[in-house]
Amino acid sequence: MRNYDIYLIENEVASHYFGREQVLYHFFMEAAHPVPSLVDIIERQYKYITRSIPYHVFDYHMNKIDSIRKGFKIKNKEQQMTIYSTGSRAVVTNRGRKLTLVSTGSFEAETLVFEHLRKIENSFLAVDLDGNSIGWLSPIKQPHFIIEC
């Protein structure tokens, strides 16, 4: 079983931390297991760094997955979607400021979710605290400036 927390990062923060994702990884690790004296500070930082994912927006976009690829079955509950086929299953849940993705079997169902989220917004960040990994679903394009002398 693979578990991911998927955050919609504020655009300014995303562009600043592109290439320095490990800093964000350590922040989310601390946020998951905060020191009691730092709970208030971490909560304020968390709200500054992440964007809320409105429930109606989640439902609207996630329901479009059904028409993207055949061969998958989809079950919808309130703020939760299960995508499955033979040998692959992914459950996506909206928790307000993050999505949780729990997948089992092959990677097909979770890949379908990641590909779909990548098309919606380019600042989704997937964090696997158990597997010590982090990554942008859609790499952020950095502006390139040409300076003429």
Number of DSSP helices? 6
Question: Helix content range of the residues, please?
Answer: 25-40%
CATH architecture title? 2-Layer Sandwich
What is the CATH fold-level name? TATA-Binding Protein
Residue-averaged pLDDT, rounded? 87
Structural class: alpha+beta
Shape, per Cα inertia axes: globular
How many distinct domains?
1
Q: Which sequence of SSEs, written as H and E, runs from N to C?
A: EHHHHHEEEEHEE
Q: Uncertain segments of ≥5 residues (pLDDT<50)?
A: none
The count of strands amounts to 7
End-to-end separation in angstroms reads 55 Å
Radius of gyration: 17 Å
Strand order of the largest sheet: 2-3-4-5-1-6-7
Q: In percent terms, what proportion of residues is strand? A: 25-35%
**CATH class, please?**
Alpha Beta
Q: Biggest sheet, in brief? A: 7 strands, antiparallel
What's the CATH H-level homologous superfamily? Sporulation inhibitor of replication protein SirA
Q: Quick summary of this structure?
A:
The protein has 149 residues and is α+β, with helices and mostly antiparallel strands.
Explain this structure to me?
37% of the residues lie in helices and 28% in strands. It has helices at 11-17, 21-32, 39-49, 55-62, 65-68, 108-120; strands spanning 2-8, 73-77, 80-85, 88-94, 98-105, 124-128, 133-136. The protein has one domain (2-136): 2-Layer Sandwich (TATA-Binding Protein), CATH 3.30.310.250. By secondary structure, it is α+β, with helices and mostly antiparallel strands. It has a 7-stranded antiparallel sheet with strand order 2-3-4-5-1-6-7, sandwiched between helices. It is globular and about 45 Å long. Helix 2 (21-32) packs across helix 3.
